[in-house]
Design goal:
CATH superfamily: Jelly Rolls
Largest sheet: 4 strands, antiparallel
InterPro entries: cNMP-bd_dom, cNMP-bd_dom_sf, RmlC-like_jellyroll
Pfam family, one: cNMP_binding
Mean pLDDT: 87
Distance between the termini: 27 Å
Strand content: 25-35%
Radius of gyration: 16 Å
Organism: Streptomyces globisporus
CATH class: Mainly Beta
Protein name: Regulatory protein
Helix content: 25-40%
CATH architecture: Sandwich
Shape: globular
Order of helices and strands: HEEEEEEEEHH
Amino acid sequence: MRTLSPARLANTLTAHDRKRLKEHGHEANFLEGTRLFEEGSVADRFWIVRSGTVTLDMRVPGRKPALIERLGPGELVGWSWLLRPYTWHNSAEAETPVRAYEFNAVTVRTAMDADPAFGSLIGNWVTSVLAYRLQGTRLRLLDEYALHGGVDTV
């Protein structure tokens, strides 16, 4: 069983810290089917979903994009904005109409640099999201590998 997602902002940051982060964002809305970003493009922003569902996917040569994860209310969409070279490692699409807070990456990184405690808090939050998603992806890959007969039995 998976633990509470650190991608859900309320599971990781206090109300005060959430308010402080939200000071750097604005509301954004996306229609179903809108691509938020594409793998390989510049990661210059990120979002926290307020309502709706965003899917994360990645390119697979010769096939349609592979679904990585579905994200819902309170979850972080995008982490590549925090790590150089600030390039998206996957793609994202609004699966349903989405309301979100949108953040300019440069603005947030500047605020993080100006206040090391705030920077550490946000950095730790994004790192915990990365670790959580990596574990989830690993489990999905193991399931997929086993489903297609890739597991040897002795």
